[in-house]
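ok so for the tutorial part 2 we go from a plain amino acid sequence to predicted structure tokens. step 1 is just haveing the sequence, like this:
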Amino acid sequence: MSDLRLDSLLDPWRAGRGGEGALWPSAEGAVSFARFAGLVAAAGRWLDAEGVRAGDRVAVWLPNRVEWLALFFAMARAGVTLVAVNTRYRAAEVDYILKASGASRLILQTGFKGIDFPGILEGVDPAGLPDLRAVSVLSGAAEGAGGKATAPPGILQGRAVSCCDLRPVPGDDLPGDVLPPDVLPPDRDSDPDAALAFFTTSGTTRSPKLVVHSQATLTLHSQRVAVRFGFDRGGAEPRAGLFAAMPFCGVFGLNAALGAIAGGAALHLCAAFDAADAAARIAQHRLTHVIGSDEMMARLLEAAARGTGQVEGRDEGRDESHVDGGDPVPAALASLRLCGFASFTPGLAGQLRAAAAAGLPLRGLYGSSEVNALFSLQDADLPLDERLKGGGRATSADAQVRIVDAQTGAALPVGQAGALEIRAPTSFTGYYRNPEAMADAMTADGFFRTGDIGMLRPDGSFVYVTRAGDAIRLGGFLVDPAEIEEVLKTLPGVADAQVVAVERDGKLRPVAFVTRAAQGGFDEASVLAAAAERLAAFKRPVRVFALDAFPVTQSANGMKVQRAKLRDMAAELLVADPVG
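step 2 — the prediction. this is what the tokens look like for a chain of 580 residues:
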């Protein structure tokens, strides 16, 4: 087995298999591997000078930038755990993750996209953070500022405040990709099994947990992502390049970035996704990979179709023809080989299907903080509708996927939906300071209970169906609420729909929430009547309530609908207004 220290992912660059512009921060231009290695060395010196030692936990509250990755690699070499903090978090969430992780230091920048990080910290009670000893502000990381940053006074009173200065010393800042061995020699001393990163679960239905990954799990997964996702392709094909827009504070964004680095691919960083900028950069640099959410893919397609970043011609052999009456893929996206996506917004399914039918290389994937975000990917040669489903073939050939009956634990046959369980060498090592949650999550034979519903295909791949908490057992049948939602969204007056189950007359019954369409007035009675014509009796909603917007929560991967809150709302509304 190869060296499972994170530093080993840089070996393709050390061997010269990478190229100029290994990393591409949006504000600074191309960064060569030698420049990046100098940043990692500088980060290591800074951690040591600040007294950060093996076993310490350091929270990083930064957007996607080259310093985030430099700190990450430096912490791996030093045996330090990085606690990933979402830039969208507010005071209560920051307080929670600092407290739960026991972080001894917080690294932040003073501003980003109008977010006042120090101002948010004013809402955090320092007395509740006994482990936090220091706060550090990244040099030059204030929004719109350059040079050495100074920390605003009053950041978490009573804590030491310093500048996190990662500017390389003379000899580190090298041109090109020729790296003298004394700048960043290979790491041979750190512990591959030491905790390297804490990620938070989304917490849409219960309190977030801190998911622990070691150097070994993240490194092995990254090496395998490089192969499965085609980041390592060379020879006659142009070098791969990833547009890295998903935030590094979540496994979705970090897994993709590390997989690209492991494969020697160019990595174009994006601190905040802008569809027009993305289309232009993909066209200009002939990038090959985009990995993100369905919403991101839809926005990218729309921006490219409006002519943003258009280029002349298309890749040789790329067919501009289209099927199902869809428009051809915009020329700006012609270089793309893989658009891997996870579905968070069911209402976009039709738009993405049309794009895939027209030639955009969309493929569904699956993952979680516990098993890593790019756990699986649909095969490119599957029929269109199957290729766009979540799930696929596991990235690691030695990963095991099974579908069981949630009540009995008995294995279910191919094609039958049930609880999805996974065992893989790249899975997480535990929930930090939460052995009870770990015991609940794992089976006696070492499989992780994902909390999702899935089904196996005859070829050994699998399909993600829905979250287990979202699945509804109606009339004795396990029903994916998306089946009902897709019907409702075709009806006059309905823009989008979410369906939950509540108990009524001793039985679980579906209740729908919808947002109104811009055209065509919403009328509940008409929607219920139309749904009754198209749905089996046990799938028909007992009520349809219109909302201005669905309740959502922010995660590292974007906004997620809070179905638990919708269930509570449905129960209350049925009591207050049982008859439509």
